[in-house]
């Protein structure tokens, strides 16, 4: 099994040990190190390639959010904090997930499942091959071409240099940023609701103060994108 590197940053010793225990049970994660401050982690990242960052938010000297924003390039970030009020800020920063302490095994397992899906999609991803009129398009998946109908696309999710295409049938991944996809005329009817998400309005079932529901799936609304949801 292909392993993906990760580190944990948390200034609380008890929480750090609990996080280590859970991460070490995940077969596809390779824990390279643990750190009690963002400064220590930053020094490690200068000479080591890390794919996943499990990061506390409320830390001395520099918060996890500030540390995450300072990184370039950015690994996948999973925030783990005792402060649920940071949830909106974490999603605004395009974090992969947000977990609340004390960490529950079921919630952590859901996060890990999404991580595994993310890496599998990246391995199979390809560039767009061609568009078929305005109704569908082809993408490359391995050595095959997959046709996708626009009417089946529930939403698009940014995954760094990749974009996940979530449809009513299955998920796909293409080597293209979300911004690049939305700049294509064929995707002009998609509405960006968050730094990491774009949807087709006709799939919206409910609009709340900070999230929308698309076919039973809750997606966050970014503060600066709320105006895009006016009908």
TrEMBL record:
Pfam families: LytTR (PF04397), Response_reg (PF00072)
Organism: Haliscomenobacter hydrossis (strain ATCC 27775 / DSM 1100 / LMG 10767 / O)
PANTHER family xrefs: TRANSCRIPTIONAL REGULATORY PROTEIN DCUR-RELATED, TRANSCRIPTIONAL REGULATORY PROTEIN DPIA
MF terms in GO: DNA binding; phosphorelay response regulator activity
Segments forming domain Response regulatory: 5-116
Domain of life (superkingdom): Bacteria
Key words of the record: Phosphoprotein
InterPro entries: 2C-system_Tx_regulators, CheY-like_superfamily, LytTR_DNA-bd_dom, Sig_transdc_resp-reg_receiver
Residue positions where 4-aspartylphosphate is found in the record: 56
Keyword Phosphoprotein applies: yes
Protein name (Swiss-Prot/TrEMBL): Two component transcriptional regulator, LytTR family
């Amino acid at each position: 099994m292909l392993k993906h590197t990760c580190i944990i940053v948390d200034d609380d010793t008890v929480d750090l040990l609990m996080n280590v225990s859970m991460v070490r049970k995940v077969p596809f994660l390779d824990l390279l190190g643990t750190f009690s401050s963002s400064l220590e982690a930053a020094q490690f990242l200068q000479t080591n390639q890390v794919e996943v960052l499990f990061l506390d938010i409320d830390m001395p000297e520099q918060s996890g959010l500030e540390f995450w924003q300072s990184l370039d390039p950015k690994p996948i970030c999973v925030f783990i904090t005792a402060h649920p009020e940071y949830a909106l800020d974490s999603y605004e920063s395009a974090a992969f997930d947000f977990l609340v302490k004390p960490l529950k095994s079921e919630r952590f397992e859901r996060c890990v499942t999404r991580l595994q899906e993310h890496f599998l999609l990246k391995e199979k991803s390809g560039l767009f091959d061609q568009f078929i009129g305005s109704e569908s398009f082809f993408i490359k998946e391995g050595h095959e071409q997959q046709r996708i109908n626009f009417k089946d696309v529930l939403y698009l999710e940014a995954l760094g240099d990749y974009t996940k295409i979530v449809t009513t049938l299955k998920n796909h991944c293409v080597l293209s940023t979300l911004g690049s996809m939305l700049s294509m005329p064929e995707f002009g009817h998609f509405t960006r609701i968050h730094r990491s998400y774009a949807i087709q309005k006709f799939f919206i079932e409910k609009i709340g103060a900070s999230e929308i529901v698309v076919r039973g799936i809750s997606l966050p609304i970014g503060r600066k994108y709320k105006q895009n949801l006016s009908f």
